[in-house]
Design goal:
The protein is built from 21 helices and no strands. With about 400 residues, it is mainly α.
Amino acid sequence: MTALSVVVFILVYLGMALGRVPGLAVDRTGVALLGLIALLASEDLTLAEAGRAVDMPTLALLFALMIVSAQFENSGFYRWVAERVTHAARSPRVLLAVLTAVTGFLAAILTNDVVVFALTPLVSAGLIARDLDPRPYLVALAAAANAGSAATLIGNPQNILIGQAGGLPFWNYIVFALPPTIFSLAAVYFAVAWTWSAALKAATGPREEPAAQEALDRFQIIRGAIAVTMLIALFLTPLPRDLAALAVAGMLLLSRRMSSRDMIGAVDWHLLLLITCLFGVTAAFAKTGIAQDGLKWLAAYGLLPDRLSVLAPLTLATSNTIGNVPTVILVLRLMPELPDGALAGLALLSTFAGNLLLTGSLCNIIVAERAKSVGARLSFADFARSGILMTLASFAITMAWLWFTQLVPL
């Protein structure tokens, strides 16, 4: 056991909570990378140990899904969706409902972070063109992406981590997760509609016809749809999900029209690097033995996160401090023997917890930053205004569902 491993672990996860290093332009990825570098330089963690700590199947699956999403982005699909949604109806409430439903559906299939990265500036520009206050719609965009992504084991990075680590059956999980996901999407709509009622009553500008059809490459969209269909079909086979996804991604890279450089460039390498570094930092901390001693103490008092009374407050607190992805990495690394029911509960609760505050999910931060780039502002208070209500509602129904299905004891 070395003091450095403990100090680096604390500082890295403190950096996850703060989002950056005060006084420096170092974000969460930079914090995690600096922590890993310190551990490697001190030899508290060897390069070989760092390599063994990385869950390569998880990273491979996430990378492949980003390639699939890049296919849709480069074909103009996201621009077409944004145009259609923002011109969906003259009524702001109908527009809000359409945005929530479409975003939730796309996030479940194409991963929430990459969906909002592509959609946010396009949706923001469309809303501003209609003289609408973009804030309630941006809250709905981020929250619906989080809520919808809970429906599948490929909807967000933390679910990918859980699905790979626990070997959860893909389709069984969807059947289990769909009811609370649908309820949570409804909670997103009603929470935003109620807390932003004044903004949603504002008059809209003229509803122009979408003009993005010229840039739409239908052939590439069909190609992407075939890839998604193949991916889902392969998930029904014994082939590992990461290998199935890589095979589909490889097929998409074999293109005469879309440059492989552009496709690979669309991958969120910062997110992949963040997850890689956190694997190493957490592994170094696990070597100290402190975590194991702490787990024994928690087990003696019945405080392990294999029951709702612990799992729910734990995910709510940690997801909104260090973030839901770091939370899941930490839990999986320190408690690899969690039962399937607790893993499924962790996937749902850690995802829905991300809707509480703007800092609760990387997806939320992406929306705020991407919207800012086109002149739309989404503050911490703007998000919390709706986020607290929708999260409490989602948690209540999810806990009731987990108790009713008897997957996770109280």
